[in-house]
Amino acid sequence: MADAKKMRSEASTSGGGGRGESVVGDAGRRKSTCGYCKSGARTSVSHGLWAHSLTVDDYQALLDRGWRRSGCFLYKPDMEKTCCPSYTIRLKAADFVPSKEQVRVSKKMQRFLNRTLDVTTSGKSANELNSAAACSSRHNCEKKSATVDSSKVDGKDKDRTGQSAHLLSNQIEKTVELCVKCGELPANIQLPKASVKQVTPAKRKLQAENSEELMLSCNVAFQIVATIRRVKKEAEHVKSVEHGVGGNEDASDLSPQKTAEILVRHLKQLAQSDGLSVRACNGHINFYSAIEKADLVEVGRSTGFKTPLPDTDANNRTVKKNSGGGSQERKIEIRINKSSFDYEEYYLYRKYQLRVHNDTPEHVTESSYKRFLVDTPLVYVPPNGDGSVPPCGFGSFHQQYVVDGKLIAVGVIDILPKCLSSKYLFWDPDFAFLSLGKYSALEEIKCVQENQVHCPLLQYYYLGYYIHSCNKMRYKAAYRPSELLCPLRYEWVPYDIAKPLLDRKKYVVLSDHATLHSEDSSPLKVTDGSIEEQQNEFDQETTDDVRMHDDEMTELDSDSSDVESDSEVGASATVVLESDLDNVLIGIKGLRLRYKDIKHAFDPSQRKFLETQLERYAKAVGTELSGQMVYNAG
């Protein structure tokens, strides 16, 4: 027993550097249809791991071996077997040189903020844009003193308000469930579903107060009280009053107004976050457009790293920007929050997926969104002030882009000891003219540059996978000077050296570039002219500014994948010695043990099976990480 405790103590401190513990389960080789070449066959081959927890140090090491994550699922393409080899691509932020197109994107945002951008050329009038930014029903319903007549709501506004009513109905139902759980409403009856209705423009001013507008209303409180009274009457009829509707409040004391007040008390924070005010009025739950907010504090574009939000915890950061001019200019905030579910973000994600990627509504659910972009195995590391951790900490984050209080884009990122890893971006299709894909990438690079001041080791921007055979993924090489990870020796090779090799063959051992180039008659040198021509090619390919993501493809295809049997797994160039297997860290019933200390407990057939599994795992993650991360064996 003493030896077991000693081994557990030794193992628990062997990985993670005091930043937690990595516990993973091996999902094995997987075959699935490919989202890049869309061959229709199961030609995409990868290795998978389920991460129960993962330290930022171990995930950094996995990235540098070609791994990526989608939620809590880790995956690495089998580069020799898969149809579309995916090379990890990164950029040293301090060396970044923006292209002419990228400079134009930054200037376009500046002109939008100072209102000199002619948005009519993008198919959206200035009045429509101002209306969307000022009176968006879901993201921000604050009322501006602009000249938009609220009685002249176009079809898009009606549709947007209708979507808001549907989403608020869902939130009220969840609030009713919460009130039942905490005893504020009866728990033994079936309460009615909520339905939020739009208020006609003619009645908005009539029923509003001050400079607000009554936008939406719900009468569920009347229905709840009617249901409670009916159930109580039936209970009295069968002489079972003592077994009737329970709760902290007697049913006879509940009135529509009191019930509405209970619900409003829970809804206030939600409404305020969306720019709405909510009140209980004569039993109705009314949602009003918020009164005009005070201007945001103006901070120049040379602002350093993000300062704490006034109304959030110290782990959330924001920077507020405008073009440095007058009060009529728009303001943009870039906020970094720890990964968590936010209904406003989900609504934007749903809108983006439906309109940009043409997903069907049944495939864009809260659960799929959480599984894909909210769930994370990374153990958060808070800032410590000694220069080894940036002010926001290490972990998974959502970077929000907010213009005059309206959420227009969200970048899902991981901030790790050496890099910022870009995972996904979704944005408001109404603001497509701002090229938010390119703009957010520039801001993420800037975030690395600013963080490096506080954390010198954090130098790189990882763009995910580069797939040379997929034209839509080639835009990533437009962020120069980038480099690709060799799939065999895990060395970084400049993109300009790798490109001629990838032009000839999909799978290349990039670290052999010197030998491979000498075998080819084409010159190695890349001239400035060809670089400019190549840059123009990238810009033309991405005019729609839809950033393609490797994680997106994994999410789409993960449900239709097959796990290969061991007999199907080919030989790997990575050799795992018996001594390396002995050092694999295994988790069994709460213990952390080296394989060498437990292998004698298995009979020959069990031992052979387990060693086959461990060898496959050690080849995939490397012998060093297999001795640091905990292999979950039950």
TrEMBL record:
Top-rank taxon, per record: Eukaryota
Reactions accelerated catalytically: an N-terminal L-alpha-aminoacyl-[protein] + L-arginyl-tRNA(Arg) = an N-terminal L-arginyl-L-aminoacyl-[protein] + tRNA(Arg) + H(+)
EC number: 2.3.2.8
InterPro entries registered for this protein in UniProt: Acyl_CoA_acyltransferase, Arg-tRNA-P_Trfase_1_euk, N-end_Aminoacyl_Trfase, N-end_Aminoacyl_Trfase_C, N-end_Aminoacyl_Trfase_N
Assigned keywords, A-Z: Acyltransferase, Transferase, Ubl conjugation pathway
Enzyme kind, highest EC tier: transferase
A Pfam family that the UniProt record links to this protein: ATE_C
Chain spans, region Disordered: 1-30, 307-326, 519-545
Acyltransferase listed as a keyword: yes
UniProt GO molecular function: arginyl-tRNA--protein transferase activity
Keyword Transferase on entry: yes
Acidic residues composition-biased segments: 530-543
SUPFAM superfamilies: Acyl-CoA N-acyltransferases (Nat)
Domain N-end aminoacyl transferase N-terminal: 32-102
Positions of the N-end rule aminoacyl transferase C-terminal domain: 344-486
Cleaved signal peptide residues: none
Role description: Involved in the post-translational conjugation of arginine to the N-terminal aspartate or glutamate of a protein. This arginylation is required for degradation of the protein via the ubiquitin pathway.
Family from the record: Belongs to the R-transferase family.
Entry-linked PANTHER family: ARGININE-TRNA-PROTEIN TRANSFERASE 1, ARGINYL-TRNA--PROTEIN TRANSFERASE 1
Protein name per UniProt: Arginyl-tRNA--protein transferase
Natural source organism: Salvia divinorum (Maria pastora)
